[in-house]
Amino acid sequence: MSGKPKLHYFNGRGRMESIRWLLAAAGVEVCLYGSLLFQQVPMVEIDGMKMVQSRAIGNYIAMKYNLYGKDLKERALIDMYVEAVIDLNELLMTHILQPADKREQHFATIVDKATNRYFPVYEKVLKDHGQDFLVGNQFSRADVQLLETLLMAEECKPDILAKFPLLQSFKARISNIPTIKKFLQPGSQRKPPLQEKDLPKVMKIFH
Amino acid sequence: MAGKPKLYYFDGRGKMESIRWLLAAAGVEFEEEFIETKEDLEKLRNDGVLMFQQVPMVEIDGMKMVQTRAILSYIAAKYNLYGKDLKERAWIDMYVEGTTDLMGMIMYLPFQPADTKEKNLALIIERATTRYFPVYEKALKDHGHDYLVGNKLSWADIHLLEAILMAEECKPDILSAFPLLQAFKGRTSNIPTIKKFLQPGSQRKPPTDEKFVAVVRKIFNI
Description:
The complex is a heterodimer of chains A (207) and B (222). Chain A is of the alpha+beta class and 207 residues long. Chain A has eight helices and four strands. In chain A, strands 2-1-3-4 form a four-stranded mixed β-sheet, covered by helices on one side. In chain A, strand 1, helix 1 and strand 2 form a beta-alpha-beta unit. Chain B is an alpha+beta fold and 222 residues long. Chain B has nine helices and four strands, in the order E-H-E-H-E-E-H-H-H-H-H-H-H. A four-stranded mixed β-sheet of chain B has the order 2-1-3-4, covered by helices on one side. In chain B, strand 3 and strand 4 (63-66) form a beta hairpin. In chain B, helix 1 packs across helix 6 and helix 4 packs parallel to helix 6 (155-170). Chain B is globular and about 50 Å long. In chain B, 36% of the residues are buried. At the A-B interface, strand 4, helix 2, helix 3 and helix 4 of A face strand 4, helix 3 and helix 4 of B.
């Protein structure tokens, strides 16, 4: 009954990627299944449950592996930071789904929101407390999800962190955590960005 | 320092309504400050009280909390509506995410272009009756308890009731194939704090109307 968590999804990032990051960061080995048997994906078989809904799954993993702060208030902060990152991720992920004539404007929106709404908040958080991690001076889910988003944003625009020195050093620091470093190496379960050529296949699965 | 939570939002349901429900069900009195114009929103932004320049925002326990789910999770945990352990929490989270998806569809309906409304309404009804309600009906059937998780009132129950009532506003007989959900609705509506919230004069907001749509469109230039 217990055993490695099993991930059900298609072979791409989508809503499962944040979960892969969290499991990897916590050093949890997973079993790949990769098929679409059920009406709802992502689905993760873990601890005798077939869990759906990416937020529910993320919450469970974060709690189980002590990546969710030490008390209710730290959890509240982590939740706020993670929810905002999810919003930005959504923008980044939907970029490739934009029709060609909307792409440029969508790109401008991504850059605007990232550099004016979201990144300044995290830069300030790090500046204000001067610690290595976002919340409670301890590695948490907020750090994992922020790193994931920073890297995705850089895939969109490589110099997007130019004005955010603390986010740059945060990125380097968190990338060096052994479990994360391993996940960032070739051959890990991290998925590459969705390519245009794969779009028709993905659209077919979800529509 | 302790005082009533204060909610900052528009005078309408939107993303704040689930927070009003949860506080009310927990028996927590709260205050509200309504954003009526673009200038109201700009003032909050310029005062630096909106972490990501967005509402909902709730002042609670010395924090200015933003992000709807973060706020709801905090309230649920604080008032013991989040299950007794990690696994119960997982179930509550899964159920709540389902009702969030459904209510999200209903929430955006008044903002859709007129020519797509009929199609979107049909999709809502289809999703409600084939994807979401069957899950909750089955959960209640399988364990035979009054509540969705752990034989005890939780956030999942409150959220489901809210979703059921919103869905019924879309189609009054939408629960016709779901006898256990009908009973659940009757039972949960009778919980004293919830019964009070369902009465006229409470802080529950009416269904989204043209006036609210106009206010939001004006504030956000959409």
